[in-house]
């Protein structure tokens, strides 16, 4: 035989051996209890043939032949007579789970069902290999499980422990070893919940709601004798109400360590209700241990108030209490669960103490009572139960279960209030606005003021009613407490802080209110309120009594403030260039002190508008309207109400009427701001003088009205003098008595018509040029005493337009010898045109263009000739076709 054939045969055998049929059943032995259901599973793998396999079940007592046939998935008449009736009734059945898996089910197993159960699968394989059956042993034991619970107490106080006792027993059958477990459950309106399960391996499993309590030690399992167990629920709450049950179970450990429950029995233990702490908690307040129902108590000042709080509850031993005493619903003092006492520091009552005098009694003591210690006293108790505290261990969580407040006890402190009389009068009354007010509040006939008592005062203001509205509510001005501290949290705070308004105690029983400077709004009614303060045993000041004076009306006649101003000439003017000086005096009425003045010097010439020359503010700040006249103008305050104005170098343009406009201001405190009081104007003083000076006229002329670009244009500005002419010399004359300021202007006529300065020369010969957008340049030259020449160098088209000059003469007065500025004189306009030379502007561009075109043409001709000779030369000559039509078609 060939080696290849042997290898193939060996491979087939190997594959066949690896694919042998395997039949398996549930691992055993199986221990079950009589009367309980039993299921035995069977499956087949690694088989051939159809995917769906059939199963036959047989049974023998010792695992050997003969066997009794039980049931089959293939043959309906497979069962022996001993099993056919149970099969027909459904007590024994087979259920196909998958194509290769089935399950034998016995509804109520009997003791006689103990034996070996064989599962066989008929062969569908092409070759026979592997195993076709498997068997498992079933042991049926009697049901001896007994569950015996003890009935729990029907009612448990909240916070107490609840013990649930239950026992589970069974008879041991050798060699069938079984194990027990016991579980507690509670049934409420929300359903049944598992509390705790113990076993079968000795492990403990708790329900979700009870896990935390078990870990905290509030749920404990206490093993007893003869299978009895006690489940202790510590510190029960209202959520523990319900019907409790006990469940016992018998378990067996099968192959592989799997635990299987074979029988279970549940017994109801009984219903348990939890009595809430709030139902039995009772709190009573009294003035003494013998008086349990006192509702009122009368004390004298300085006595000690003693009150008792008695707490009772059915489960008091399981509670931890927090006790608080309250007066008029305000907390006074508290003792917490740990016994720590905490007093309310905000309370204005006497010194209080709280101590526990018994298991359920708490005593409050308030020493040195006063009128403020009177009120309604109650005792509030909060009950807590500690959760999660292991016996002998640390602290757990506190849960408040109840809160109650005792009956009220009314405490009254009899105290005789001090009595006295108030007298409010005005020591100083103002006659007009701005004068001071001084009010005196005197306390007389004081009686019953305790030793160490003091007086305090508060001042109020009530505005006077008008025809439209009634009087407004009182406004607090300020107050002095018993220690003399000033309280000024009112609308008068700024005036009090600045010292304009003063509150003082000049004697122990005399108080004063003083306004250093009154305002119109201070008219009204004033009231003083005096309070008597006593000292408690703890050194605290207590308000014992309070009395209010009758309103005192403060009113004066109000007159409108006025300012009268008188102007007087100090130095008059008869010729130009002289100095003018005048003084203004202000007289005020109904304004008072603390006055400031603002002065304006104003003038008017004929029907012209009024001009303000200069001004002086109340803070003596000077402002000049015309900065060029700053050096010749003076305005100064020479007295409390006097002001001096001086104008040096008077000119003809200064002629007109002059007067003072004076505004009186009052300074408001405390912000130191100025407020307008009144305004007045003085009489008018005229500046007018005759000056026989020269008269002037100005004209403009030029040599030619048109120039070409880049040429120089020349224009003259000539001044003609007539009348009495002062002497004038050249520019170097030291006796020159006439000078001019000359300014040239240019008006562009193209586009938007605008006039702009070109160049100017002042009377001292200083030339000033304006900024120009053109490339041309300008200059000005004095040709003679009365002629000025404008030169425009390198004229451009932008220089075309109208030109005119403006001359301001200055001459020295023959009478005073001072320089006088005359008015401005404007000449007529002349037009300058800058011509455009067309041929001159085009000949060079044309010449350049023709030369460039000729050069490019010659260059192109030479380049084409070179290319034709050298680069594009064809040595093979092709004769030209005579057929023109054919050439066109070829093209």
UniProtKB/TrEMBL annotation:
Membrane topology: Single-pass membrane protein
UniProt keywords, alphabetically: Disulfide bond, Immunoglobulin domain, Membrane, Repeat, Signal, Transmembrane, Transmembrane helix
Segments passing through the bilayer: 846-872
Listed SMART domains: IG (SM00409), IGc2 (SM00408), IGv (SM00406)
Subcellular compartments: Membrane
Record keyword Electron transport present: no
Pfam families found in the cross-reference section: V-set (PF07686)
Principal localisation: membrane
Domain Ig-like, first and last residues per copy: 20-129, 142-264, 289-391, 418-543, 694-826
GO CC list: membrane
Domain of life of the organism encoding this protein: Eukaryota
Residues spanning the signal sequence: 1-20
Claim: tRNA processing is one of the keywords in the record: no
Gene3D superfamilies tied to this protein: Immunoglobulins (2.60.40.10)
PANTHER family: PROSTAGLANDIN F2 RECEPTOR NEGATIVE REGULATOR, V-SET AND TRANSMEMBRANE DOMAIN-CONTAINING PROTEIN
Stated name of the protein: Ig-like domain-containing protein
Organism: Poecilia mexicana
């Amino acid at each position: 035989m060939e080696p290849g054939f042997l290898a193939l045969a060996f491979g087939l055998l190997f594959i066949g051996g690896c694919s042998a049929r395997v039949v398996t059943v549930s691992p055993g032995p199986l221990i079950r209890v009589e009367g309980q259901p039993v299921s035995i599973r069977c499956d087949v793998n690694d088989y051939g043939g159809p995917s769906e396999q059939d199963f036959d079940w047989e049974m023998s007592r010792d695992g050997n032949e003969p066997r009794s046939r039980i049931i089959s998935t293939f043959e309906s008449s497979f069962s022996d007579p001993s099993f056919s009736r149970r099969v027909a009734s459904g007590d024994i059945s087979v259920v196909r789970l998958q194509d290769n898996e089935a399950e034998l089910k016995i509804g109520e197993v009997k003791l006689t069902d103990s034996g070996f159960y064989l599962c066989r699968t008929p062969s569908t394989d092409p070759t026979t290999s592997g195993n076709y059956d498997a068997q498992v042993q079933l042991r049926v034991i009697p049901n001896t499980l007994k569950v015996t619970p003890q009935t729990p107490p029907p009612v448990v106080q909240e916070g107490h422990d609840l013990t649930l006792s239950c026992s589970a027993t069974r008879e041991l059958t050798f060699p069938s070893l079984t194990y027990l477990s016991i579980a507690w459950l509670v049934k409420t309106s929300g359903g049944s919940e598992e509390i705790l399960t113990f076993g079968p391996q000795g492990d403990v499993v708790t329900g979700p709601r009870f896990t935390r309590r078990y870990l905290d030690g509030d749920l404990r399992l206490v093993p007893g004798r003869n299978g009895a167990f006690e489940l202790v629920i510590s510190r029960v709450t209202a959520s523990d109400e319900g019907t409790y049950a006990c469940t016992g179970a018998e378990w067996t450990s099968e192959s592989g360590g799997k635990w299987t429950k074979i029988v279970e029995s549940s017994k109801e233990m009984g219903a348990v209700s939890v009595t809430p702490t709030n139902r039995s908690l009772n709190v009573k307040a009294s003035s003494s241990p013998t008086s349990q129902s006192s509702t009122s108590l009368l004390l004298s000042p300085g006595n000690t108030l003693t009150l008792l709080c008695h707490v009772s509850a059915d489960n008091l031993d399981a509670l931890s209490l927090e006790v608080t005493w309250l007066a008029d619903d305000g907390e006074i003092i508290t003792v917490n669960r740990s016994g720590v006492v905490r007093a309310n520091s905000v309370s204005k009552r006497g010194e209080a103490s709280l101590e526990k005098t018994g298991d359920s009694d708490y005593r409050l003591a308030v020493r040195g009572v006063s009128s403020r210690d009177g009120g309604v006293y109650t005792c509030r108790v909060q009950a807590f139960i500690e959760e999660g505290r292991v016996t002998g261990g640390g602290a757990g969580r506190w849960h408040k279960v109840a809160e109650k407040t005792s009956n009220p006890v009314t405490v009254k402190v009899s105290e005789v209030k001090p009595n006295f009389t108030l007298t409010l009068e005005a020591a100083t009354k103002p006659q007009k606005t701005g004068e001071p007010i001084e009010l005196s509040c005197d306390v007389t006939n004081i009686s019953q003021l305790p030793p160490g008592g003091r007086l305090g005062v508060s001042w109020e203001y009530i505005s006077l009613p008008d025809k439209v509205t009634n009087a407004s509510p009182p406004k607090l001005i300020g107050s002095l407490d018993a220690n003399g501290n000033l309280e000024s949290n009112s609308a008068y705070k700024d005036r009090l802080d600045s010292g304009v308004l003063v509150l003082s105690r000049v004697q122990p029983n005399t108080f004063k209110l003083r306004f250093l400077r009154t305002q119109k709004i201070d008219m009204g009614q004033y009231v003083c309120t005096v309070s008597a303060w006593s000292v408690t045993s703890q050194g605290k000041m207590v308000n014992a009594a309070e009395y209010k004076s009758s309103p005192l009306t403060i009113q004066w006649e109000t007159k409108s403030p006025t300012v009268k101003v008188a102007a007087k000439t100090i130095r008059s003017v008869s010729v130009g260039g002289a100095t003018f000086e005048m003084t203004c005096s202000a007289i005020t009425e109904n304004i008072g002190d603390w006055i400031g003045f603002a002065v304006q010097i104003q003038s008017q010439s004929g029907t012209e508008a009024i001009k303000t020359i200069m001004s002086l503010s109340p803070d003596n700040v000077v402002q000049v309207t015309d900065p060029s006249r700053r050096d010749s103008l003076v305005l100064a305050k020479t007295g409390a109400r006097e002001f001096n104005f001086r104008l040096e170098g008077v000119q003809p343009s200064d002629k007109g009427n002059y007067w003072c406009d004076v505004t009186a201001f009052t300074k408001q405190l405390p912000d130191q701001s100025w407020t307008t009081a009144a305004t007045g104007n003085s009489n008018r003083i005229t500046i007018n003088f005759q000056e026989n000076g020269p008269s002037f006229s100005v004209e403009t002329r030029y040599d030619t009205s048109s120039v070409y670009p880049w040429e120089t244009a020349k224009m003259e500005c000539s001044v003609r003098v007539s009348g009495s002419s002062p002497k004038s010399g050249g520019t170097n004359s030291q006796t020159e008595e006439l000078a001019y300021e000359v300014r040239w202007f240019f008006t562009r006529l193209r586009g938007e018509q605008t006039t702009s300065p070109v160049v100017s020369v002042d009377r001292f010969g200083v030339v000033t040029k304006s900024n120009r957008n053109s490339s041309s340049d300008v200059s000005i030259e004095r040709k003679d005493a009365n002629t000025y020449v404008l030169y425009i160098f390198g004229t451009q088209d932008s220089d075309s337009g109208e030109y005119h000059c403006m001359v301001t003469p200055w001459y020295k007065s023959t009478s005073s010898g001072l320089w006088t500025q005359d008015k401005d004189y404007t000449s007529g306009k002349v037009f300058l045109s800058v011509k455009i030379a067309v041929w001159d502007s085009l000949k060079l561009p044309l010449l350049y263009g023709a030369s460039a075109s000729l050069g490019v043409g010659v260059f192109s001709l030479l380049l084409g000739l070179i290319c034709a000779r050298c680069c594009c030369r064809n040595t093979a000559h092709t004769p030209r076709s005579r057929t023109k039509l054919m050439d066109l078609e070829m093209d």
